[in-house]
Amino acid sequence: MIETYIFVATYFYHYLLIAILGVIAVIFACTPLAIAWVLAPKKPGKTKNESYECGIESKGDPWMQFKVQYYLYALAFVIFDIEAVFLYPWAVAFTGVGLGGFIAMSVFILILVESLIYLWGKGLLEWK
Amino acid sequence: MPWIAPEILLTALACVLLLVEAFAKPCPRLIGFVTLAGIFAAIGITIATPIASEFYVAPWGGLYCLDRPAQFFKVFFLVTAALVTWISLAADEESLPNRGEFFVFPLLTAAGLCLLASTMDFMVLFVALELVTISFYILVAYQRTNAIALEAGVKYLILGALSSAFLVMGIAYTFGITGSTQFVEIGRAIGHGPLPLGLKFGLLLIIFGLGFKVAAVPFHLWAPDVYQGAPTSITAFLSVGSKAAGFILLMRVLYTAFGSAAAFATWIPMLSVLAALSMLLGNLAAIPQRNLKRLLAYSSIGHSGFMLIGIIAQIRTPGLAISVFIYLITYLLANLAAFLVIAVASKTIRGEQIHQYAGLWQRSPVLAASLAIALVSLAGIPPTIGFIGKLSIFGAAWQSGLYPLFWIGVVSAVAGLYYYLGVVKAMFWSEPLDNTPIPACLCTKALLLVLSGLTLLLGFWPQGLQHLVRIVQS
Fold first, then answer.
1. Does B221 touch chain A (CB under 8 A)?
2. Among candidates B224, B228, B226, which has minimal Cα distance to B346?
3. Is the pLDDT of residue B59 over 50?
4. Contact by Cβ (8 Å): B78, B91
5. How far apart are CA B107 and CA B362, in angstroms?
6. Are B160 and B137 in contact (CB under 8 A)?
7. Prediction ipTM score
């Protein structure tokens, strides 16, 4: 029982500072807003209610259909993004992994190349 | 590396077939036959490979083993995959988009399942499980123009991702406390001492994650909708392959990694509650179902409950986990026969409502008789193999003194008779909606004859099953 207690106590102690930081951050962000809400005079007007430095006002309904090809491109991009993510630690540990690691990574890259050829075969790379 | 040859073969074949399908666009059925041939080759390799009880792949160490249970489950998964491909070929729905690729994805699923059967490490477990689940996400939502299939796909994707998140969190806790992801090392790190709180929490999360896979109550909510919306052959794959995968993982994780007395005290009560709830809810909630695939979904939830008893019984009396193996064989034969009939019949019937199956006996005696034998076997009535499965599970419960689970199991098995026999009654003693005969090709009839024949033969002659099981145990 006491071990459990100590475990829980030490485990959560590490997070105590983060919790304190979080509380301070919330107070820091909310205080000016609260002060402004209490002190500032409220005289709204048409010009004042326009969006300020947030880009151009949108025209028409933003819930329009996008071409599905955008999403397919994004998916294809993610495949090679992941490749970079996995290649990087492999390159760092290259001298330690030996021939087995080299073969494993070659197979991995070959499978990714295959996926690119597959996408080409399916006509994904043509913009219609 | 002859040990992982089946996995390599299946994955390579899938990669090649995807390219061939993309460029040459051959006849979809041809791809199906090549898939079938590949799976048979993998079965041959698996049976021919000598057993190495503690085999570790050299450069990475301790990730993979090929013992008797692993070999049993590999053959089990590959036979399931072969039969599922056969069902896909027999059903051959013209409405499916990309019919060629539909035959390729089960190869990837089968490769993942074979890898799962041999995993001795949480990292391999996770990668293999994701390979299986992601192929299933694609397959479940395959009829993407159909609203029910889309609903099934979305539900399976979200709940599957959630269960994977639980599993990863559990693995992270376990790794954080024991400092290893290998089952043997985790078991060594736990030793005989009490379980730290963090490890108990990790174990709880891992059981959540695997509970989704075997569709045990209260993690069963995805099953009925997904089973209904998926193409019938994929429903068969889910209900047999995915479920059996959950059980081999439960055995590996719970017996090897969490195999100390203190760990038993943590997970046995949890699994007992899951087993009792699954048996009761699965069998009682199946009674009001009017859709045959939903009914089989609830019935499969109930069957998970029965098999969980076998997992628990092994701890009290070593050797009783064999009842799970027996039960899985009975479940495979009966369930795949039932789904084959549904797949073939729904081409003509255009639906899976039970009232549409009324008078199936007049329309197609072979289909009606096979479905009846399958359902009677699932219910566990004596001259069929299902009775042997139920008998071994209940025997294991009684022998290891799990009396509450035994009685709950008996009550739910009796409740199960009602809805299984309700379908049989509709098929034989109700007037058909229309009298057009339902055609079935010769291959389908032959396969149904084999499945039903085995269901009856092994029911009359259980020594055959015993012999098989003794090979697994040795």
1. no
2. B228
3. no
4. no
5. 37
6. yes
7. 0.80
Burial category of B182 from C-beta neighbours within 10 Å (exposed 0-12, middle 13-18, buried 19 and up): buried
Distance CA B68, CA B473 (A): 7
Picking from B83, B18, B363, the residue whose alpha carbon sits closest to that of residue B91 is B83
CA of B174 vs chain A CAs: smallest distance (Å):
15
N-to-C CA span, chain B: 24
Interaxial angle between packed helices B122-140 and B147-178, expressed in degrees from 0 to 180 and rounded to the nearest 10: 170
In 3D, which of B312, B341, B332 has the Cα closest to residue B408? B312
Give the 3-state DSSP-derived string for B218-240, with helices as H, strands as E and coil as C: CCCCHHHHHHHHCCHHHHHHHHH
Q: Where are the domains of chain A?
A: 2-121
How far is it, in rounded angstroms, from Cα A109 to Cα B133? 22
Q: Looking at residue B285, what is its pLDDT?
A: 92
Q: Residue B304's closest CA among B245, B227, B231, B256?
A: B245
Collapsing DSSP to helix, strand or coil, B182 comes out as strand
CA dihedral for B159, B161, B165, B170, sign (positive or negative): positive
What is the distance, to the nearest Å, from the Cα of residue A4 to the centroid of all Cα atoms in its chain?
36
Least Cα separation, residue A16 to chain B (angstroms): 18
| Residue linked to tokens 């041999």 | B118
Nearest CA to CA, how far is A78 from chain B (Å)? 16
Are the beta carbons of B345 and B357 closer than 8 angstroms?
yes
Question: Which residue out of A122, A124, A126 would a mutagenesis test of the B interface target, given it has the greatest number of B Cβ atoms within 10 Å?
Answer: A122
Rounded alpha-carbon distances, angstroms, from residue B334 to B92, B240, B331: 21, 10, 5
What does CATH list as the number for A2-121?
1.20.58
One-letter-per-residue 3-state SS of B7-53: HHHHHHHHHHHHHHHHHCCCCHHHHHHHHHHHHHHHHHHHHHCCCEC
pLDDT in tens, B218-268: 899 999 999 999 999 999 999 999 999 999 999 999 998 898 888 888 899
Distance CA B177, CA A17 (A): 23
